[in-house]
Automatic annotation (TrEMBL):
Signal peptide residues on this chain, from the entry's feature table: none
Name of protein: Reticulon-like protein
SUPFAM superfamilies: NAD(P)-binding Rossmann-fold domains (SSF51735)
Family: Belongs to the 3-beta-HSD family.
Segments passing through the bilayer: 396-413, 425-443, 517-535
GO biological process: steroid biosynthetic process
Keywords for this protein: Endoplasmic reticulum, Membrane, Oxidoreductase, Transmembrane, Transmembrane helix
GO cellular component: endoplasmic reticulum membrane
PANTHER family: BIFUNCTIONAL POLYMYXIN RESISTANCE PROTEIN ARNA (PTHR43245), SHORT CHAIN DEHYDROGENASE_REDUCTASE FAMILY 42E, MEMBER 2 (PTHR43245:SF51)
Topological category with respect to the lipid bilayer: Multi-pass membrane protein
UniProt-annotated location(s): Endoplasmic reticulum membrane
Cited InterPro entries: 3Beta_OHSteriod_DH/Estase (IPR002225), Lipid_A_modif_metabolic_enz (IPR050177), NAD(P)-bd_dom_sf (IPR036291), Reticulon (IPR003388)
Length: 584
């Protein structure tokens, strides 16, 4: 389509290779009446495979001169001036990764960068500046926001450094309105997502790939507003058009931008993750518990940088899921004529399609019927016991937990002899079954219940194969031989390390089991329903801690034994056989 240069407007997209910037550039070029200058921190423009296609809007625009590229470092005003000279509109968005290094770098890019951009626009006589802020500038970690509007003040305690710096930059841009002919406004999108999303969906995926995959963090009733990236780009263009025609209403103002579809936070997350083949979380954990656990793990893991991303992702997910944050966009709808052009469901579908490659190498992904077993599940035999202890079915696991607690109370807490306790329990069961059968013969569903309780159907029949019996006998024989081997080594009196291991093991067994059998039994039964689940989620961390403890114990034993006297052989091990005289 031929474009009349006299009808075209020249704009600069500063941050044109960021998540939002890429989408905005394509949309401006698709509209057709814009000459677009792409400005970013990279020294040269590197096109993605999808952008390198001949029929892509960006590739066509670069070949026809409707698009160009300029390197800009917002910390240096001269590079900004070179990029925006001669343009009348500047769309400005900074990179969300600018705070990943340190505070000074983040401040110099976001806050000082905004000041340099404003000063460059005033110098180059740019007419309109539209800044992409974030709804997080009014968010803290302790309060819900329900249908919040533009009258909300900046947060007194920002949830992270990026939000605090964005608030400072936004305020400076708005204060620069109507100075030297420059008109400014800002938009505040909430929870941006879409193809190429560098923050929201990757954070959810990191959590799904980690040990938190089976937990619903926080309440599943919290509601949030989400914004598809195409709608953000559309809102920027609407703001520019309104700034041109309704400058008194729009200039110096800020507008919340969402998809107009507040939704349950976990519903949104599950729609994304299930589309990529991840497990649906089944266990709810309070956000305060998860926050404490993450803090503890970070404290133990300070020197392991490879796990920082997982901790950040869990933290972001806690922030998203623990509070309700919805916004009223009536001001944007009324003053800049913004309305979403892509629905939430369509946005989720296109986003999931673009992230399909991340569903291939997941340790917890369900691709078809292939599910990788965890270490503890394999250790427990991958049967019903594993399903119960790992809470695969919450109802059945809870019933079993109550049953175990009742048996512990009956046999241990009441301090009766095992024979009398067993007899009383059997008597109680027999009376209950027989009494139920006599009292409720006409109860609806009784026949079905009675058939389920049938002794012939309920009690298992023992069928032991010859191979199983041989394996059992071989195991017993191996244990016996190993005990005999340990006894022989101890009798030789030459291995201090083994001596200490045996003595400490026997002492701990006596201390924990023999002397405190009821308590040890109760703690063991209770924690078996908790520790197995925890180990499944944090097997790497637990193995690491146990490995450290084992290594410290081993080195301590070696340190002690190296300073003990060398034992003399036991008389039992002295060879009493007389030497044979030589016939020579």
């Amino acid at each position: 389509m031929a474009i009349d240069d006299d009808q075209s407007k020249t704009c600069v997209v500063l941050g044109g290779r960021t998540f939002i910037g890429r989408c905005l550039v394509v949309r401006l070029l698709t509209i057709g009446n814009w000459i677009v200058r792409i400005a970013d921190s990279a020294h040269s423009l590197q096109l993605d495979p999808s952008e390198s296609k001949y029929d892509s809007p960006l590739n066509r625009a670069l070949s026809t001169g409707r698009a160009s590229y300029a390197h800009v470092d917002v910390r240096h005003k001269s590079t900004i001036v070179n990029a925006i000279e001669g343009s009348e509109v500047l769309f400005y968005m900074d990179d969300s990764d600018s705070c990943n290094q340190d505070f000074y770098f983040g401040y110099s890019v976001i806050v000082q960068g905004a000041k340099n951009v404003v000063n460059a626009c005033r110098r180059c006589k740019v007419k309109r500046l539209i800044y992409t802020s974030t709804a997080d500038v009014v968010v803290d970690s302790s309060h819900d926001i329900c249908s919040g509007n533009e009258t909300l003040l900046y947060s007194s305690k920002f949830k992270d450094l990026y939000s605090e710096l964005k608030a400072q930059a936004e305020a400076y841009v708005l204060l620069a309105n109507d100075i030297d002919g420059l008109l400014t406004c800002a938009i505040r999108p909430s929870n941006i997502f879409g193809p190429g999303d560098p923050v929201l969906l990757p954070s959810l995926i990191e959590v799904a790939k980690s040990g938190w995959a089976k937990f619903i963090i926080g309440s599943d009733q919290t509601t949030s507003d989400f914004t598809y990236v195409d709608n953000v780009a559309h809102a920027l263009i609407c703001a520019e058009a309104a700034l041109t025609s309704h400058m008194l209403i729009v200039s110096g103002k800020v507008f919340f931008i969402t998809n107009f579809e507040p939704t349950k936070s976990w519903h949104f997350a599950l729609c994304m993750l299930e589309g990529l083949g991840y497990y649906r979380p089944i266990i709810r954990l309070p956000a305060v518990v998860v926050r404490s656990v993450v803090f503890l793990i970070k404290w133990m893991d300070l020197n392991i940088s490879s796990r920082d991303l997982k901790h950040v992702s869990v933290h972001n997910t806690i922030q998203l899921m623990s509070r309700t944050r919805t916004y009223n966009c009536s001001a944007a709808e009324r003053h800049i004529q913004y309305s979403p052009i892509v629905s939430l469901d369509d946005g989720i579908t296109s986003t999931v399609k673009s992230f399909k490659h991340l569903a291939k190498d997941l340790p917890t992904a369900r691709l078809g019927d292939l599910v990788e077993q965890s270490k503890i599940e394999e250790l427990l035999g991958s049967g019903e016991v594993a399903d119960i202890l790992l809470w695969r079915d919450e109802r059945r696991s809870f019933i079993c937990f109550l049953g175990v607690a009742f048996l512990y109370y009956w046999f241990c807490v009441r301090e009766r002899r095992i024979v009398s306790s067993t007899a009383q329990l059997l008597l109680l069961v027999v009376v209950a079954l027989f009494g139920f059968a006599r009292i409720s013969p006409n109860v609806s569903g009784y026949a079905r219940f009675s058939s389920k309780l049938s002794i012939s159907r309920t009690l298992p029949c023992f069928e032991v194969s010859e191979m199983s019996m041989r394996s059992f006998v071989r195991t017993i024989a191996n244990i016996w031989n190993e005990v005999g081997n340990v006894a022989r080594i101890l009798a030789e009196g030459s291995d201090w390390s083994l001596f200490f291991k045996v003595v400490i093991s026997i002492y701990l067994f006596k201390l924990l089991v023999v002397n405190n059998f009821p308590t040890s039994m109760g703690v063991g039964l209770a924690f078996s329903f908790v520790l197995c689940l925890i180990y499944e989620q944090y097997d790497v961390e637990v193995d690491g801690i146990l490995g450290i403890i084992f290594e410290i114990t081993r080195q301590s034993i070696e340190f002690v034994t190296s300073r003990l006297p060398i034992p003399t052989p036991s008389p039992l091990c002295i060879n009493t056989t007389k030497p044979t005289k030589s016939k020579d």
